[in-house]
Amino acid sequence: MHDYEWNGGDLPTFVTHLECSKTGEHYPADQLHGLSKAGRPLLVRYDLDRLSKALSRQALAARPQTMWRYHEMLPVRRPESVVSLGEVVTPLISLPRIAGRLAKGGELLVKDEGRLPTGSFKARGLVMAVSMAKELGVTNMAMPTNGNAGAAMAAYCARAGMKATVFCPDDTPDVNVREIAMQGADVYLVDGLIDDCGKLVAEGEKELGWFNCSTLREPYRIEGKKTMGLELAEQLGWEMPDVIFYPTGGGTGIIGMWKAFAELEAMGWIGSKRPRMVVVQAAGCAPMVKAWEHGEEHAPRWQDAHTFAAGIRVPQAVGDFLILRAVRESGGFAIAVDDEAIARGWREVAAEEGLLLCPEGAATYAAYCAALADGRVKPGERAVLFNCASGLKYPMPPAGTPLKLGSTIDWKRLQG
Ligand SMILES: *Cc1c(COP(=O)(O)O)cnc(C)c1O
Prior knowledge:
four-stranded parallel sheet, binds pyridoxal-5'-phosphate
């Protein structure tokens, strides 16, 4: 167990049951589950009253800075099930220069998830899914991916000694395909989009008995992603920011954070104030934005999805209604930004603040700028952007001026 010691025996977890997110129907804990009978995601429920008596914010403060510091609020029962690679608490990095320029008096913070194992926040969800799968006896996992989720699943499956099979669209960034393979998984390149890959996983599930680890099809990735909300609350002294910008694909993170805030309030750790939750999508793939604008509960499949921000190229999400519910209940909104604005934002934050975001993270910055301009975010507000992966995992624009040794160098020009 990575740098967190329990006092022996099973973990004091407080899971009571699982619940269908659509119908509220109960399902027993400690059994393998996929979707509910209604075909919707299952949510893990806890005895929050008992939990709040067993754990205090003070006790928490003394623990190591890893996501396992919240283990009472997580579903794993046995320490030996945990397949950790060192899931550090990620820093909140302020962007003071940009905030000074754009939002006088406001605070702009980036939760930098690129520091997690495998370089993306998919590690949070997959460490939980794989740990629970191990606990419940799974030996063979499969998933569709745009890259980062597959990499995280491959890594944790390798760690757990399980077999992993991954399907990605054939234009998935090379680095993702290769890291998946390096981490021991079988990886297939499919001439379609992520939901086409999802159909193949569902067939393999029937044919070969793989455990299907697609987004929201098993209950525990949400619990892992929930730790983003727990960390954020704790890092801000149990105060909520005014607004959170989240690059939304399948929506696990926004659903998980919204769940975290509800649980923290039920435990009496935060008040009723909530951040406005902002769904950020790319203009070339914005099903949630369209559904939000039309006041709909579900989002039909987006045709011809395209954007270079691969992590948010998700044409259809099984948890659409949960994403839209969080946006509406929080008084937030959904916003699309085009690839040009994403690329501009990517360069701007890197050059001005020294923080190399991933394109999806840059999308949240572009959305923040647009929302400041149209008044949906006020300059004095505290805003949090999610940078979900290391910028180093993405192909960057070519750069570098050749210099020939022995030739005369015009030093004045180098001075800039
Ligand atoms: C998966 C992913 C997203 C989308 O996250 P969801 O919680 O599935 O909506 C955003 N950015 C990156 C880099 C990702 O890998």
